[in-house]
Structure formats: structure tokens, C-alpha cells
């Protein structure tokens, strides 16, 4: 019985290994154009996606029963791990047949790429910590210094807020604090991107807010012509969007606090039925985000404002965060804009915050690999709204696995210890979330009245998690991201 099981396991592994090699051969031309330092990573990514295109739960159970590796936790060296299992079962490989991307090479490569992206730090076995800055920091040099002393490695400046004079002042203070403390801190600047926001143009316009209740119909329109005074009319700050909406499309306002459904399409006016309002204050405010998860929007990820910011970013930032990336062509576009400036090229971080970006993640990674160093941010705020909160746990895990396979550092962002930062008291769920975030190479926190306490708590959590974070065992069910890549599908499920 055992011999039969061993035979079946080896046959399954042999078939898998042939498929890995076949899929890599299909993409030899694409891989050949990548920098030498990225080629092994690209090959490993293809092999991992090939493996995750099929259901391996049965094989994993058999491997586990035999006391062998179940292939879990081996994203960064998947083929070599498979070969190691086959060697245990009696397979003899020639030296040249063994995949050079083994566990040691994979681990060292990820460490080196992470260090190149985020700089040096004292605690090698813990993630980097990024802190979001704003104009209030300009008059608080002691606080900036304190952030550095308490573990901040990366300072984030969001170009959606303030202006170049504020950004320059913040950067000078950060550099001053680094000199005084001897600490290293990278400057990360986020392009604002086409964040679609509310503009109240009828009832409630003067106050910048309007009361609503569940069941109400509000209107999306670029003008208030043809509406009664009592009608609630919201104008998105981006033109050309409303024509893309279809009846039944979901619309979320204020990071998902308000959920509506497109119920009436009247020319260039769209009536939205409000289905849920998850707030005690049932109102729509101006300048709040609007998300259209069911609607394919033809909006450039680079606004004219972004383009105007790029020369300053190139001059002053170590890293540029690229918001609302959807496909590889978006990266090519940013490359062309930066090239036109004639300035130095900051390192890239591509923010994954739309269903399109999730679907296209492998191709985004391959395009990113044309650069020696880059990173990925799981921008959980917009992403959760776009894909559905119930899917967030699943999708953020998949992004981590796939980026690990590509040896690409990941930033875990949005609402990390948010309640602790605002109130001084952490919830049990956010403590658990922070522990889970330790799987990423960098964790982003927002500013708040208790930021220093957040840093202290996060460091404590990360220290404890680092001692046993590899104990988790996952099963390999098929990933839609992998299936879309291997089979050339375009749907996001």
C-alpha cells in the first residue's frame, strides 16, 4: 500500500515538474529581455503560477502522510523544493538539472532586494515600518526624531495633500533627524492618482454635506441642470465616468461606508439607490472617495497633477508609490513620463487597489522586473471596497504568496492598529491583523495622536511573531490569479 502511494506521489510530481519546465519554455523570449538579476525570479514566478493553476490538496495530503514536504511555504523556491521531494523518493538528478533557485538563494535574494528598496535597519528579522506624514509634522521636529528612535524606517508623504513647500520642509526635517540620530530613513512619496471623490452640487452644497437615509435615491451627474432643489446630486471629480455605469452596478462612497446600486440611467444622469449606510451620522460629505467596483473605467492612473509632481519626486524621493495601477502599460507610461524629466529614477512601488490590478498582478510583476528593484503595496483601503470586504483576507494572502514567488518586497498598508492610533486602545482583531502583517517586508501605519504607542506595540508584536511565523501550513487550491495567467483569461472572480 505504501509503495503504491509513493509511486503515485512520484508520478504526480514528475508530471508537475514537466509542466513547470514547459510553461517556462513558452515564456523564454519575455524572460530573456529582463535584467540578469531578475531572470531566476521571473522563472520561479512562472513555475509557481503553473503549480497554483491546479488543485494540489490531494497530493499535499499524501505528501504530509508520508512525512514529506507538502510544498507549502516554498513559494520562493518552488521547483527546487519539488526536486528535493523527488530526491527523497529516489530520483537522481544531474547537477545541471537542479534548479539553482534554492531556499538559500531565494532567501538571500529577497533580503537583498528588500534592503535595496527600504535601506538599512537594525532588526534584520522584522519588517520595516513606514509612517505617513502630513503638514502638522512641519512644526514638530522632536516628534519626527522620536519616530526614528522608535522604529520608523520609511517616511511616507502623500502628494494628494499639501504642496511642494510642505513636502520640502518635511524632507529637510527627516534628513536632519537622520543625521542627529544616526538612523536611516527612506523618503517615499505617493502619487495621488485618479482618486474619484464626491462634489456636492445641489442640496447641501453650501455646508459640504447632506443628510441621507437607506432607501434614498441620490443622483450622479456632472451638472445640476434639470434637478429640483430637494434632489441630492453628486458630481464625481473625474469627467467621462458616468457613461460607463450600467444598471445594477454597485457604487460605494466614503471607503464603503455607503453602498448604493445604480437603478436609473437617464442619459448622462445616474440614479443611485442607497442600500446601506454603516455610520451613525447618515450623511454624504464632500471630498469623500467614490468606488465603482463593477464598472470598467477608462481613467489614466496618472493625472495632470501627478505629472506636475513627478520632477519634485524624482529630485527628492527614494521611492515613488504608483496609485491605481491596473496593467503593465500603466508602468510603461510612468517610465516615459519620468524619462522626459531627465532626472534620476526613483524606485517604484506599485499599489494594488483594484480588481484589475489583482487580475493582472503577474503581468505587472513581469513589467516591474524590467527594473532591478521595485515593490508592491497591498493598498487595503480601496482594494477592500473594490473586491468586497469578505474577500480581503483571501486576496491579500494570494498577493503575498505571488510576490514571494517573484522575490518582490511587499508593503502591508491601511488601518494597521488604526483604533490604537486614534483612541489609545487596540482591538483584539487589529492586534491579530498586525501579527499577520509580519509576513510582509514593510508595514505602513497612518499618523494619529498615539503613533509612538503604535510603533512600540507593533515592534513588540513583530518581535514575537518573528520567532514562529513560519509554522503555518497552507493547502494549494487553485488560485484565480494563476489560472487567469496560465489560461489567458480576463475575468476576475
Describe this structure in words.
This protein has 18 helices and 16 strands. It is of the alpha/beta class. The chain folds into three domains: 2-101, no CATH class; 112-194 and 300-469, Alpha-Beta Barrel (TIM Barrel); 209-291, PK beta-barrel domain-like (M1 Pyruvate Kinase, Domain 3), CATH 2.40.33.10. The strands form three sheets. It has an eight-stranded parallel barrel with strand order 1-2-3-12-13-14-15-16, surrounded by seven helices.
How would you sum up this structure in a few lines?
The chain contains 18 helices and 16 strands.
What is the first-to-last residue Cα distance? 40 Å
Average pLDDT metric? 92
CATH homologous superfamily grouping of the largest domain: Phosphoenolpyruvate-binding domains
Q: Which band does the percent of strand residues land in? A: 15-25%
The CATH architecture of the largest domain can be named as Alpha-Beta Barrel
The structure class reads alpha/beta
Which descriptor suits the 3D outline?
A: globular
CATH topology of the largest domain: TIM Barrel
Low-confidence stretches: none
> For the CA atoms, what is the radius of gyration?
24 Å
Q: Biggest sheet, in brief?
A: 8 strands, parallel, barrel
Oligomer state equals single chain
Count of DSSP helices? 18
Total DSSP E strands: 16
Strand order of the largest sheet: 1-2-3-12-13-14-15-16
Helix share bin: 40-55%
CATH level 1 name of the largest domain: Alpha Beta
